[in-house]
Protein 1
Amino acid sequence: MEQHTSTFRLRLREWLATHMPRQDGPARTGSDRDPARHRLLQRRLFDGGYAGLTYPAAYGGQGLTAEYQEVFREETAGYELPTLCNVSLGILGPTILDFGTEEQKRRHLPAILRGDELWVQLLSEPAGGSDLAGCITRATRDGDQWVLNGSKIWSTGAHFSDYALCLARSNWSLPKHRGLTMFAIELHQPGIDIEPIRQANGDAEFCQEFITDLAIDGHDMVGAENAGWEVAGRLLYHERNLAGAASPYTYGSEAESTPVAPTAAELVDVARSSGTTQDLRVRALIAEAHALDAIQGRLVERIGTGIATGALEPIAGSLLRLFEITKVLHCSEASVDIARSAVVVWPESDTGRLGGQFLMRQSAALAGGSIEMQRNIIAERVLGLPRELAPDVGVPFDSVRHNAPARRR
Amino acid sequence: MWGYRSTRSATTRRRGVGDALRFDASAEQQELGAITRRFLEDTVPLTALRLLGEKSPAGFDRDWWRRAADLGWTSLLVPENLGGSGGSGGGLAELAIVAEEQGRLVAPGPLLPTSVSAWTLAQAEQTDVVRRALDAIGSGEAVCAWVRGHDDGPWPQSRPAVRAVRTNDTLSLTGVARAVEAGADADYLLVAVCLDDQVAHVLVHAAHAEQAGLQRQRMHSLDLVRRHADLTFDSIEIPRAATVIQGDQGRIILQRQGQLANVLQGAEMVGAAARTFEMGLEFAAERYSFGRPLASYQVLKHRFADMKLWLEASAAAVEGAVAAVADDAPDAAARVSAAKLYVGQKATDIVQDCIQVHGGIGVTWEHDLHLYLRRVTMDRQLMGTPAEHAEYLAMLIGL
């Protein structure tokens, strides 16, 4: 195996040097990224035989092990990569792989790998984020078709994406988790209005969707009718892997949105700019960030092994997400402490990145499931502690009290 | 309604070994852990520790230590051709499993100094003196203290606390080495010394050195059964042949000794924190307040979730450090310091939090929790505190 990966490594190294652009300056993130360029880079990887290394060959992938993805990650350091495709490659693609019909897989997976299709997940709603199973977007059966009505929110880059997996309530008389169905929908069509949401830092990476009488073909159901919660659970598993730097499908750990804190390595530059590298407190903060970074790689390995050997439930991936949040929050605090006045006052020639990041700090502990939900999951499903009292479990959903549907602003 | 679903923690406990360390332990490693745990439970159960601490000045029984040595504890870092059991992988992963089990049961015994000393002697030229010492340490007949001195400046001190000067055919040692584990009771002392601006390692017969004037001052230790002493060398003459390692090697060996020591402390802290965490979980599940188990309160559930993360990340940090030190990897020093700064902090946090969960009973002499707090605090404070390792790591990353 070692020998195979080393041949692969050399071949890849040579190919990258002639086919992929080097990174100039810090990696572009969030709304700085140009979807057309990322689609093009993804296409280039595909044509070179380096897209979807761990995807089955039958669907356009290379059918290789995660080891090869690791080699890819190491060798591509310093190259510009189509990170905008991470959500499609790491979350939606794998979910289709798990639950899609043969036809859905053949239709969408090669297109994702080619960069032709960008996907997003439509799970959260204005009426509730953490309580995902309390979803109130309505799917009404109409012969072989379904009709969707409702609103979704916090979808990253929906305005430039092509498809989505959308969770909707297909049966209101069943208990909340058992009346949901997952649908694959095309985003740009009549019946869906997509509005970008302006964030506290002025960026607009997220969107809200308003869905009105959207007709969906029965073939576009992913998983069985009323089995959407199972599909969503798997989707969230892949999302946690991506957010916890443990996805075998993607280019690095960056999940979806703009990083909200400098990395451990960037903190060193922050300290150099503020002239504080000899301050003992600053050195300790940076050392800790560095330690968290070093430990994270090992933790990903450890939890992965634990899940593979059955010592841990797959849900233990939540630990990785909690660690990532902890690390980001530490780096955020550290950057503000270290940079001093530069966080709040900066010259026109600068970007004021640190201040902007600090405004968005909490999104690290919100996006992809709040830190409180992660702690609940770990306590209840990893450690087996008693569940929170839930008056909405085991009763028909139409008798459960919930928030009002969102109205168009 | 508040039924306690005992799931993973109970399952992993049934595995019997490596609760915290290594999900990828081999069958042999699991067996080693299981044997170690059985031996400790049978011979030095928690119930016997307080008495042992009161009755035994050394904190451990020599016959017991010989039996422990029979299990291979003292020879894991010694290669087979020198009479040890360390394979090409070096045996550090196995020793870390033993150390973790020691933490789980707050075990007595000079595992750290004998391991570091035996490893060092195995690196030395195999003279008769070295061979005899290695054999005696390996069989548990003799105990060797590792003397590098503390409180002489932030970790890692570049200069050992003891200086050596050449006289005609002897070396003369001067200096005070503080907080030397098993320092008052050891038969051998492996002393790191400054010699001609380099670091050398000398092997000293404790009894001979005492005749030559070595002062061994027994100190009080926070741990009930791990004992420390301050050693005062005041122009103590020893044969030059006692030098087992010198030249450029000396400093490298000193650095690797420090890495080994910190890895073993880390593994022990992980074991101690893992057991304390189990105690906390069990207590919270069984203790009822306002008609429901403590474990059903979200504020405590979240606390346990955090502790679980700290525990897993600590185990991962130690695994990383073990691998790096075993391979003598270029980043070994950084891995070790990253582990010490994280595990040292989090292990004490976990134990203190579990004491909080227990309420008042957690701060009584009668309850076992303080035994664990004593152990993790000792490991955290010696061989570089988390803060010292943070500063060292800052330097290593170029700050």
Protein 2
Amino acid sequence: MLDTSKTAPPVLSVRNLSKAFAGKTVVDDVSFDIHPGETIGLVGENGAGKSTTKNMLCGLLQPSKGEILVGGEVVPQIDGPEHGISAVHQELSLFGSLTVAENMCITDLPGRPARVNWAEADRIAKAQLEFLGIEIDTKATIESLGAGRQQVVEIAKALLHADRVLILDEPTTSLTAIEREKLFAIIDTLKARGVAIIFISHFMEEIYRVCDKFIVLRDGKQVGGGHLADVPQRQLEEMMVGRTLEDSRIDLDPPGDAEALSVKGLTAIDFENVDFTVHKGEILGISGLMGAGRTEIAEAIFGLRPASGCVQVHGETVSPVTVQAMKDRRVCYVPEDRRTNGLFLNRPVRENLSAASILNFVRRSLRGVGFRGEKARAQEEVKARNISVPSIENRVSDLSGGNQQKVLLGRWLSTLPDILIFDEPTKGVDIGAKFDIHETIAGLARAGKAVIIVSSDLPELLHTTHRILVMRKGHMVGEFRREDYDSVKIISLAASAGNGSNRNA
Amino acid sequence: MPETVRNIFARQKWMAIAVATIVLAGILTAASPVFLTFSNIQSILVQSSVTAIMAIGMTFIILTAGIDISVGAILFFTSALFAQLMIDTESYLLAFTAAMVCATGLGALNGILVVRFRISPLITTLATYSIYRGAAIHLTGAQNIPVPRDMGFLGNGKLLGVPVPIIILALIFAIGVYAFSRTRFGVFTRAIGNSARSAQESNLPVNRITIAVYAASGLVTGIAALILLARVGGLQSGIGIGIEFTVIAAVILGGTKLTGGSGTVTGSVIGAVFLVLIDNGLNLMNASPYIYDIVRGSVLLAAVAVDRLSAIRQQKSVEAARAARIRGSAVAG
């Protein structure tokens, strides 16, 4: 690498960059400089504001506040092609049935509209791929390539139009170890050629492998930055996780000894050989990064997704594992995406509350018409769950996220379950509702119910659970007891690129 | 590197229908000595010309993941307008120009509605189907209108020994293949059907291309209308009823995916010929006329089912590869 990075002006600088949506500040006061040939790692937990920052940097969003300087000159908003800034998003923008050359040149086809010069397009694509030192058949269709090669084509395409700053957003999530190394080699080539790179990743190893400098975001704020060489990984992880949560832990009673739910050798497409047991009165957390297979396991246990292996409820094997079989055994599942998988948005709160236990009301009212007791039950539930809603006849879509989640919770609690599985129980809810939901969950455990919480929100797991299982790429890679909770250890275990398995870490 | 048969099938999406057509032709040759005569083959091509021409236009619509149910109504409206103008003005030039403009306009209107209101193309064109057909009947007072005798040249005449409909089909086919592979319009069409989101993000003129695709389909439908009018000899109220089924079936049989992005013009034309061959075969078997629709529907269903099965198989192998990767990382650790 040329040593111009110290003297040359930064290719891109941002000062006090902020973004607010509907009054809520998502990114607050981000400032940094990036020089040619430099790589900056942008790190932070889920929801820390990385994506919003990225979108402002590549011109998809207009900042609410702050200053952007491109090559030393102030610009109001970034225009990717004009300023030489391009981004490769997690979701690729390629066309599967078109060829590599067609994909790379589609926004700027050589020749006339009525006669595209495909030979020239092919030449451009070949030259670009050669420049990056990659061998890919330019006439192959994108869908015939593996994830790694698709990623490379996307990068090559992006650099064709803007080659000063390249933003890579979690570029390795769908790559194999070999593909990842190849990608890093390409990044090294680009650095040597003077391309500035902003690298967004969860994986600390990758950040250290690829980047020179770093910025840490937490809750939208820039809480750290500097040269990676000066900062050990542990310290970086602490910056990322931040807050110490010991004080806000919820009091839990010790769990019972009786087995409530146990899973042995559960295997499906997204995970393999998962074993664990939840006891009565215990709250078990399942942690892991996106794509680690957390949700898939929860769905498999509830019979929503085919899997092999053994699921036992109160020591009795459930076979086959179907939703009905699980419901009959008083198991319930509260899904992650309440809007699409849980609630009937355009139906009233009353119906949403009674949906899972509607048969109870029918049986009692054989002679009458309608569902006797449904209204009274719904009223009770609204009160018990502290749902703020003018009337039980209001549509669920009118409620806030937190109240919607409470309705969903109420629906399943009214089936009087013994075992509850929650997937992201407090995603997108306000802090008050979050507290209510955590209290409810803790109360359930005190009453002897077994609870599993699947969550990407580590602090939530840290203070609501007895035990946390860590998943990585479809495998259980670790288990922590409440007394040994260490958020940094858990995060680094979930995010490490290594493949080792260290249970009871 | 020698390509395997499977690869050729995967790359040339019209191969399957081509093989099916040759097999069917073989069966018909064995069943009837007159099948493989020059005149019979010519007649099959002439019979399939109207739907084949329309199928070429429909291919582009389906490539964008759209559909146009109203093509039969556009065909009918254009025929009606042309016949009526010929009666009123006796000017070929005027009637022809008006018919082409009108056909293109009706197609474009479908495209504009789809783009502007973001309604599903199925519902949009189901509605315009009813409107266009109703308007045509209103225009002509539901009468049968004969067209001038010399119009017959377009439907039954020959140029240098080749039937005129075949020449027109060949021309439109050539333009279609060229537009598909060599023009910006063609790539953009395929790109939009592949991923409307990516197309939008890449700043492709999604709306303009979508409207253009429906307009182009309208235009070729207008041309097909004149051939059909010439062959039938005049406007009849039954013209174009149910033809959208044959056209869409030809495109789907030809290997174009209803989900968009993938398909060929060649396949659609062969698909249209294939459907005529089926009629031909049923005719040879002296089958009851009621059987025809049952057979056509069953063939379409079978083709779509086979296609789905292969897609599901592909999906399975992708999932298996992913599972293998998870297993692989376990072995490494």
Protein 3
Amino acid sequence: MEILWIVILAGYAICVAQSVFALTAKRPVMHRASLTALGIALGAHTVWLVIKGIRANRCPLVGTEEMSAFLSWSLAVFYLVASRWYRAAALKAFVFPIVLALATIAAISPDSQSAPPPANQPVQAILLPIHVGLILLSYAAFFITFGAGLMYIIQERELKHKRLGTIFYRLPSLDTCDAIGSRSMAIGFVLLTVGILAGLWFTHLRYGVYWQGGPLEIFSVATWVIYLLLIQARVNAGWGGRAGALASIVSFLIVVCSLVGVRYLGHA
Amino acid sequence: MNIVLVGLSHKTAPLEMRERLAFNEERLRDALGELVDREALEEGLIVSTCNRVELLASTPDGADRGLGRLTEFLCGFHRLEPGSLNGHLYRHSDSDAIKHVFRVASSLDSMVVGESQILGQVKDAYQAAVEAGTIGRVLSQLMNRAINVAKRIRTETGVAQNPVSISSVAVELARKIFNDLSDKTVLLVGAGDTGELAARSLIEEGTGKLLVTNRSPERAEVIAGKFGGATVGFDAFYEVLPSADIVICSTGASDYVIRVQQAKNSLRSRKRGPVLFIDISVPRNIDPSIAELENAFLFDIDDLESIVENNLTERLREAKAAEEIVEAEVHQFIKQLRSLDIGPAVEEVKEMLSQMAASEFKRNRKRLGGLSPDQENAIQEVLLPSLVNKLSHPIILHLRNAARDREPSELNEELRKMLRID
């Protein structure tokens, strides 16, 4: 499995280096090599998750190692989808550093020893991974929102300063950044909602109550409320553009805090 | 086989002279037919644009004769005195000609380096010559390679990347703010030429509605009519300001035509969506403090010109890299051409026949009996070489003719089989 991590991390590292460099480079830089590296890394990453799941006889969503691995995998996949939909290859430079960081955390984390509490019924056994998986997927979507928000702010700055450097030509249009941001936020919100509901249902089935007040629960619901406010603001107050971008960036910090909080305070 | 090129461009001749020497479409076919007489010039191509007129040909006779013939033809066709073009014409042969062709196709010789029109014009000229039947092996190889070099330079260097005219900068700005231009409205205030040009570029790029307003309604009608837009009264255009996504201002007014408060109100009632203000007037017609409003982007003529200048400098820098690519490609192409030369094959034939003759002589020496040194000399130095020449002459003639149309590698192959060379 260690070999897989080396392949994965090397591949993502190449992607990060190439995409960041390409943002300001005058000539096209190793685009195809980076694409190949991404393909190989993502393939290896998928293999790792599958093997892990088979070995542990459950979804690989328990513990820091597995959650980080799954989160970085989802983020890489979401990037591929977003960049196809919107022709925004520059997004790679903003998203893959996070992918690499999360993958590194997964690579250096110890094996997830803890198994989830034994499920009493088959429904519970499915609900828990759905709950965790959906919440992680929503965080991946919010990371995309973060990347799009950063791109928007940089592009807007280029326009306001009227200098139009190389990065101006590499980044997509403001409208596109905004569209990626709002769509990923909407998708993330839906995933988060369903994930929380799955969690509530699981807790109810397992423990008889809907709410136990554990760290993951609190952080997820807090995140959910914040994004609800953000979405409301976008729709009602016409927050598009810069305000929306700033909001996206703030939301990233929230997600990170959630993850860190859950990591260190344990989870229900 | 030599490649020769004669021509003049915006760098060497004034517009009137270029116009005088131009070949228009109808006469091009005839001109090509006249140019390629199969004696002095075997293949020919004519490129005639508003910035250059060039004649390219391949000649079996030596570069000087070819160049002379081209110059003769150019003067003759346009009924000019033979010496009248001196000082304006450039003449290139072989590697210089190849380099020139590559450079022109890649837009390195154009008025604006990196422009995209010239490649299409070169392709058209090539197509016309193909249809006129004046393209053979050499020029077809050369032109196809030139087109590939041009494409390579476009993708591998930044020579054609960033916009270098006010209009194209305006278009780029619009595309980087708005993703989809088809539902965006352009408001043109005033009737200046640059403003109209910018509006035209945006419309060609695919913007939606065009609104034109001017102090003189007739002028507004004229411009609106040209592009299929609508006019708005000059006193009333503030009312349509909120619906305008792109505002181009180009009046002769000496004071601000669009002020901060008007822009603020307009932005507020728009709800969402940024506005691109382009102020091409001098003195400025749009209050500069509008630039500080959120969702408003303002570019005045100085901003646009400095962007153009930066990009031009960038292009010139990239052009250096492009020139290096051209050099390398010229070297490679010449090597390729040489390998296709049948000269070596001819030498081989002669060599082989000479050796056959020499070895037969040696083998049958005894039968000849005693020979004086003079006789022996006469046989080896006169008879045998003369025989070899006579025998190889029809073969070589055939080779030369065949090389015009067929791949020399094929010919070499056939030759080997024919003469049983291992």
